[in-house]
Amino acid sequence: MATTQRERILPDRPTGVRPPGPQPALAPPRNPGLPLELDWIRDVRVNRSAVERRAAAIGTRRTVKRAWQAAWLLRAVTLIDLTTLSGDDTPGNVLRLCAKARRPVRDDLLDALGARDLGITTAAVCVYHAWVETAVRALQGSGLPVAAVSTGFPAGLSPFPQRVAEIHASVAAGAREIDVVITRAHVLRGEWEALYDEVRAFRDACGDAHLKVILGTGELGTLRNVARASLVAMMAGADFIKTSTGKESTNATLPVGLVMVRTIRAYFQRTGHAVGFKPAGGIRTAKQALEWLLLMKEELGERWCRPDLFRFGASSLLGDIERQLEHFVTGRYSAAHRHPMA
Q1: How many CA atoms lie within 13 A of 294 on its CB side?
Q2: Of 81, 212, 239, 242, which one is the catalytic site residue?
Q3: 179 part of the active site
């Protein structure tokens, strides 16, 4: 099968790391989930010191050569769920965000990089339910999906029927992806059946919209809890598992990400179902984006470096990536205000 220009954005450079087992098809079917397997969940173990050593080596053991950095950063742009989740959001703010999602990198930079014809956009736009219809109208014809945060975001403590109703409302308004939050107490108390039933109900309410399950890892206590919650969410039918809401005191970290992607790998190897991963919260620089891409490429393979299986949840990341691309072209760092996010 011929490789498209868009697929060549991230060069397939040899890394010395063999992808773990068979890779999913180019258009992987949705994860249907499976019945809850409590024995599998109880058997989960995490070696924290080994995880922390591996995570600390991600940005130092291997780096992206300068000649390839622009290509990797352009790929990173295509993986961003461009997000605004502020209490002072307005229609104008959301419209600017959507315009930036359509054209995330300045035309002069794309011309200099020979990338104008790649059709680069962000992966999606993520907003509160109140702005779904506004974003859908603004993105009409672009093919970009709107993701809505739901189920009592960010705490997830509103009445359960209300949380399910939120999902139905956002899907009816045109959201094609739903980012839900779990009840963290289910994880902290080991109530795996309750967590499974909750996520399964959210999946059923989503219908054809893809379900991204936010674990709130900074509030789960241990890496073992992170792995177990990830596994339960996938068993319940999650299309993506996501680290954080961005509102916790601790958000996406590489040790947590490593645990989650290895759980995704174990689930894929055992079931054949590919589940996506979305780190969110605190990812603000191009350097951080490259570290997360290296993590995905080394742990899951290049196939998990595409928007249908990997996303960044970010608001300020795009501005820094665009600034780094200008440095790549001109050799100079520009002022941040030359690269507004939206």
Answers
A1: 23
A2: 242
A3: yes
The catalytic position among 81, 100, 179, 212 is: 179
User: Tokens 């596994």, residue?
Assistant: 231
Looking at 100, 212, 278, 297, which residue is catalytic? 278
pLDDT of residue 68: 86
CB 195 within 8 A of CB 182: yes
Domain residue spans of the chain: 35-335
Tokens of 322: 């665009």
CB 58 within 8 A of CB 295: yes
Strand partners, 179: 149, 212
Nearest to 196 by CA among 29, 309, 30, 41: 41
Q: If one looks up domain 35-335 in CATH, what number appears?
A: 3.20.20.70
> What's this model's pTM, rounded to 2 decimal places?
0.90
**Which of 6-15, 207-216, 273-282, 317-326 is the least confident region?**
6-15
Residue 108 is among the residues annotated as catalytic for this protein: no
Are the C-beta atoms of residues 253 and 289 closer than 8 Å to each other? no
242 annotated active-site: yes
